[in-house]
Design a protein that fits this description.
Layout lengths: L17 H17 L4 H10 L4 H13 L5 H16 L3 H10 L4 H9 L4 H13 L7 H14 L4 H13 L1
Helix pairs in contact: 1-3, 2-3, 4-6, 5-6, 8-9
Length: 168
Amino acid sequence: MFGRFNSINKNFKRKDTDENRNLAFNFAVKYLSIRNRSTKEIYDYLIRKHFIDDTINPTLKKLTDLKFLNDEEFGRAWIESRQKYKGKSKLVLKQELKIKGISDQSIQTALTDAADDYEVAKQLFERKKKVYARYTGEEFKKKMGGFLQRRGFSYSIIKKLLDLAEDI
């Protein structure tokens, strides 16, 4: 009744033809134009678009050869962005990159260039301190500690920052 939404199309797969390889490449480039992506993200996207592995693998190779896909560079950029704008810890970033299909070796390489957790937490603490300024004593510690904990920072870092705030 509604074309692409009927049950017949659930098992639809595109055949491996030159036309479909070009189509897969164009889909991937358009998807990459939004933001940088990992190889796994592109692979999953093309699977959702009903392409088969015989079409996807040459497309991924072409994207890599043209330097549109580079998992190590993606990992570095992801870590830099998430630390700067979201204040995420290395532990959380490692988990996010694993989900995005980045290899352990690439993750370790990217994390060596990453900012120290204490410095990131300190910057985040300074930004959020104004929001929690209305709370005093234990309530401030509870709110700020919970916030930093949700960002993936360790207890030792959180305690150090809260102790530092007590001295101020």
